[in-house]
Design a protein that fits this description.
Catalytic activity: (2S,6S)-2,6-diaminopimelate = meso-2,6-diaminopimelate
Pathway: Amino-acid biosynthesis; L-lysine biosynthesis via DAP pathway; DL-2,6-diaminopimelate from LL-2,6-diaminopimelate: step 1/1
Subcellular location: Cytoplasm
Keywords: Amino-acid biosynthesis, Cytoplasm, Isomerase, Lysine biosynthesis
Number of helices: 4
Order of helices and strands: EEHEEHEEEEEEHEEEHEEEE
Subunit structure: Homodimer.
Structural class: alpha+beta
CATH class of the largest domain: Alpha Beta
CATH architecture of the largest domain: Roll
Length: 259
């Protein structure tokens, strides 16, 4: 099967994009894994199908590099908005359906601003936290993210009994009161990625929750570039809402591949 695809990245978090509005791409997990392979395929952290949606501008169907359909991907969500604009489906603003529900987005001059789901619960255990920002995230605060062996330490936590078979993404977070630096081990990729949108969001909210910053607009430094998280906190209901993830969403190239 000959596949027409597009390559995008959001702060180094890269994706294969396929226009599947006709729903003609019935890809197996083995084919998706092949396409995402960095030696034998195109190479990507994940693959995204853009499909038609009845009530919204389009639907996002996301697969991790292991070929399995996964939970929400923040950078992938921002990149599919840029992809939809390139296809002429949307202009400056849009609404789309993802596995975790409705998302709104706005095109910026230098990227895409994406609305994330509300967060109603954060589990705290000493210096470690867990929260779901569309995907599950373990947060561990460290003094210096550059000294962490992310692939080793991240794999230990991701595969621990704490999260069972499903596992969790793992984020190592360094804060200075005004900004955040983080590195993320992503399940499904089973390695460190250069950025993770839901992880960036989780790190920002966790830092605020632990009073490591009082800001509600936080610059986040990922390995592949900078992103920003804006949010509001409802003290009475103990929830984070009106959460927006902003950053670059870059088109790289388009091509065909036999799969």
């Amino acid at each position: 099967m000959k596949i027409h695809f597009y390559k995008y990245h959001g702060a180094g978090n890269d994706f294969i994009m396929i226009d599947d509005r006709n729903q003609t791409h019935q890809l197996t997990s083995e084919q998706i894994s092949f396409l995402c392979h960095r030696r034998f395929g195109v190479g990507a952290d994940g693959l995204i199908l853009l499909q038609n949606a009845e009530q919204y501008d389009f639907k996002m169907l996301y697969f991790n590099a292991d070929g399995k359909e996964s939970t929400m991907c923040g950078n992938g969500g921002r990149c599919i908005v840029a992809f939809a604009q390139q296809l002429g489906i949307v202009s400056k603003q849009c609404q789309f359906e993802a596995i975790d529900g409705l998302h709104k987005a706005t095109m910026l001059t230098d990227g895409v601003k994406l609305e994330m789901q509300n967060v109603n619960a954060i589990v705290v255990n000493d210096n470690q936290l867990f929260l779901d920002t569309g995907s599950p995230h373990h947060i561990l605060f460290v003094d210096d993210v550059s000294l962490v062996d992310v692939n080793v330490e991240g794999a230990k936590i991701r595969n621990s009994a704490l999260y069972g078979k499903a596992g969790s993404n793992v984020n190592f977070v360094e804060t200075d009161g005004n900004s955040i630096a983080l590195r993320t081990y992503e399940r499904g990729v089973e390695a460190e990625t250069l950025a993770c949108g839901t992880g960036v969001t989780a790190a920002a909210l966790a830092s605020h929750h632990q009073a490591k910053t009082k800001l509600t607009s936080i610059e986040v430094k990922a390995q592949g570039g900078n992103l920003k998280v804006d949010f509001k906190w409802d003290e009475s209901q103990k929830k984070y809402y009106d959460i927006w993830l902003s950053g670059p969403a870059k088109f790289v190239f388009e091509a065909y591949i036999q799969c």
